[in-house]
Amino acid sequence: MALAQRDVDMRSLWRLLMGAMVGLMLGAATAAGAQDVNGTLTVGAPVSVQIEQSGQSFRFAYEAGAAQVISLQALGIDIAPVLAVLRDGQTVAADLNAAASSTLNLDVFVEPGSYIVQVSAAAGGTGTVVLLLQRESPAQITALAAGESLNGQVGPEAPVAIYGFSAQVEPQYLYVESGLADRGPTVRLTNDASGQVSASLGADVPGGRFRIPAGTASYTLELAYSGAVEAVPFTVCLTSVSAASCEAFTGLVAPVVTEEPVAICTVTPVGGAVNVRQSASVNAVILGALPAGVAAPVIGISPDGTFYFIEVSGVQGWVSFSVVASSGNCDVPFVNPPPVTPQPSAPTATALPFPTATPLPQPTAPAPVVTPEPSGPCLITITAPTNVYTTTTATIENLQDQAQAGYQMIPTGRLADNSWWKTNYGNAWIQTSTFGATATVSGDCSGLPIVSP
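Predicted structure:
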């Protein structure tokens, strides 16, 4: 069922969803791991997938016989879909659906070859997603020469504009400028030889300047329609650094933006300190913590869109989307997380043989009772899974983590009534009622200061 327009009316949407749901009932697409291929995409043939657990994704093969622009659409039923297009394990294009929309459109320029179209859910959601390859359009690549300025427009009828150019014997400036004051097309600059995405801009940035190094490399510039407005006019210009002939464009309402793109993506904990883990899973070992109020730079995201890969205090690790807030330009690359290293388990106790009792002579006088003085640093050792909290109220909203058997924490303070102790485990609080049940205390803890939550 081919769709001629990007925006489907309610009747077309109903037919599309009904056809896809019938395909689902017949087993056209089944749940599988992120590395399995669940089918093949063809124009006008929707497929429906059921995302049943957080982090699950579905992958569909697509074969491009020529350089062309493909238009993808994902419709979520009580779910916000995420789309990505990959080639040889590398991300060609993606939309993380930051607005949590139920309808997602992605137009991608592809060269001849084999691709994977991956669909998942934003923020670890579950539900049904209908994926449709709406159309394939022949790619028209316009040559961009040094000293040349070209005008164009992207919109529903022509969603992608593509330009090709080569580096020169001296460095060049590439300008991309929107005709709108507050937004522009999404921009992607690709090195043709390596396939690497050299630079990109989101639709919320109306323009930018890129410095192209001297050499013999060739590049492809893609400008794509973001769907927020009816159409976006633009101008692209290529000039040598010494000539600087692109400083003013004609026919546009917005000035040239010569500043560098927006600030890098960073994340900050939503509440208290959050765990930084070895892999993109809540079962992975904890490497450290991101303290409350501290912003950490984002290196990448997991392919299923549920974990950020960050660096804090020289440690690189993973934090869940659900416990942090992001800012800056978060159009960052996908990073495949390593295999999960689980939390260490408690050592298995080995039963010792019970000794044979030997009668001892009765003492002539009772020995004095000697109470040894506690020695060594104050230490809490977890003997069974124990909840720790961001504050001194044991509710699910304040749950920071479940410390596993074998973990050790150093107390840093206590409440005046001794009902809670504060620890160095991401500044988490632990109830003293767990002592002797799921945790033990050793060392000299008499000097713990009284602190407030």
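Summary: Residues 10-25 form the longest helix (16 residues).
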